[in-house]
Specification:
single chain, 459 residues, alpha/beta, OB fold (Dihydrolipoamide Acetyltransferase, E2P), 3 domains, five-stranded mixed β-barrel, 14 helices, globular, binds S-adenosyl-L-homocysteine, binds iron/sulfur cluster
Length: 459
């Protein structure tokens, strides 16, 4: 969501004729987009802002702004704490940002705008330049959250749950496709309640609409709250050909006692039953999850139940976090806080256990042929120095199950001798690592872009 917001900010700045630069020294404007989900993310914001003081001294006209959830949460207090800061803007102020920056440029004033609204402000920044050639893009379908999990800051910094109109979503995706997008990830804190409040279509209906967009190859979404995972959504994985076979389904804890105190509104049995249903209908589906360790009052027995659940579930991947108190979130006032040392140990245990399953799942793919959407050059391929052909160039992409695959272009198999970003390539997996796979290309899918005929694009 943060990445999506940064892209919206970049679009707005482009409309003001600000171009992106790779170095802080060259910048006339620095925007720090922040995350408040855990304490550590928030601490990083202040140390980063501190480091910008020297730049501002050298270049007094430099405008420095802070946006996002920490800005929403702290408001004007950040201006007091950071004297070289010009601007604080909240999560609902992105649409107003160009106007705010113009005011700062002309009046040399400091501005705080953390006003929240229940309406989604549709941004109409025309340029798509920021997205040009990006194969995979995020698209927000709803903002805010009404669930009030007791550890979570989101309802306080992102406001009430509000869904975007389906037409706006489809329009945005169509525009992204014109810029080279082939995959979208639809974003919401709880996508399953999409449209309910406003009486728009349901989330599976929205997925079906997106599935009908020409030239889009893949659809992903995140996040689905286990309590609201519906039969219709489970069936969508079978019915919609563009929907990738991966679901992120955060469990948070394996202990019913902890889940209740987290206000998650499901228990272990219900979660397992939903996963069973998913795996029965679609045995190849990849399931990933989130875990919080050291929630206040989490006993050793509660924690053991989480470890047991991880063993039982065999997730494809897991994000695990040490619990941290967040402002306004109910659990901040809960007794029996777990020590930092204990949280660290529990986190390490979870990560070690999951590593085993992630590697196991990756190894199971060795020998299979996977369809990969090519996203760009692999991390190792820092530059392309091509004399005669692209055959040694290393590309990166993902399987439908969201696993990273790196591979060389090869000479025979991928006969297209050129840039293959945005193409679907069938890759035979030959090696599995803990966080990626390595393969050999077998064949490339022909380009068959329906309505617009054949087109090439380059990143
Ligand atoms: N809406 C999503 C979660 C969004 S926040 C959902 O309900 O699943 C992403 C993840 O951050 C959460 O799943 C949780 O595991 C973690 N998280 C949120 N608040 C936290 C806190 N106070 N301490 C540690 N981890 C937290
Ligand atoms: Fe936070 Fe819970 Fe809402 Fe997710 S569902 S954003 S964890 S309050």
């Amino acid at each position: 969501m943060n990445v999506y917001d940064s892209e919206q900010i970049a679009r707005g700045l482009k409309a003001l004729r600000y171009n992106m630069t790779s170095s802080q020294e060259k910048a006339d404007l620095i925007i720090v987009n922040t995350c408040a989900i855990r304490e550590k993310a928030e601490q990083k914001v202040f140390s980063f802002l501190g480091r910008l003081a020297g730049l501002k001294r050298k270049k007094p006209d430099l405008i420095i702004g802070v946006g996002g959830c920490v800005a929403q949460q702290e408001g004007a207090k950040i201006l007091q704490r950071v004297p070289h800061l010009d601007l604080v803007f909240g999560t609902n102020a992105i649409g107003r940002l160009p106007g705010i920056i113009e005011t700062i440029e002309s009046k040399k004033c400091r501005i705080v705008d953390v006003e929240m609204s229940e309406q989604i402000e549709e941004l109409d920044f025309v340029t798509n330049e920021y997205h040009k050639g990006k194969v995979t893009n995020f698209v927000t379908i709803m903002q805010g959250c009404d669930n009030y999990c007791t550890y979570c800051v989101v309802p306080y910094v992102r406001g009430r749950e509000t869904s975007r109109n389906p037409e706006k979503i489809i329009n945005e995706i169509s525009r992204l496709i014109e810029s080279g997008a082939r995959e979208v990830t639809l974003l919401g804190q709880n996508v399953n309640s999409y449209g309910k409040k406003e009486g728009l279509c349901t989330f599976p209906e929205l997925l079906a609409l997106v599935n009908g967009i020409d030239d889009l190859l893949r659809i992903r979404f995140t996040t689905s709250h286990p309590k609201d995972l519906s039969e219709d959504l489970i069936l969508a994985f079978k019915e919609l050909d563009k929907l990738c076979s991966h679901i992120h389904l955060p469990i948070q804890s394996g202990s019913n006692r902890v889940l209740k105190r987290m206000n998650r509104k499901y228990n272990r049995k219900l979660y397992l039953a939903k996963v069973d249903k998913l795996r029965n209908i679609y045995p190849d589906i990849a399931i990933t999850s989130d875990i919080i360790v050291g929630f206040p009052g989490e006993t050793r027995t509660d924690f053991e139940e989480t470890l047991e659940l991880i063993k039982e579930m065999e997730f494809d991947g897991l994000f695990a976090f040490k619990y941290s108190d967040r402002p306004n979130a109910a659990a901040a006032l809960f007794p029996d806080k777990i020590s930092e040392k204990e949280k660290k140990e529990r986190l390490q245990q979870v990560l070690n256990l999951q590593d085993h399953f992630t590697t196991k799942k990756n190894k199971e793919l060795v020998g299979s042929t996977q369809s990969i959407l090519v996203e760009g050059l692999s991390k190792k391929q820092t530059k392309v120095d091509i004399q005669n052909s692209y055959k040694d160039v290393q590309w990166t992409g993902r399987t439908s199950t969201n696993k990273i695959v790196n591979f060389p272009q090869g000479d025979d198999a991928v006969s297209c001798d050129g840039i293959i970003i945005g193409r679907m390539v069938n890759v035979r997996i030959v090696k599995a690592f803990s966080h990626s796979l390595w393969g050999e290309p077998v064949s490339i899918e022909p380009i068959s872009f329906g309505s617009r005929g054949e087109k090439n694009y380059v990143a």
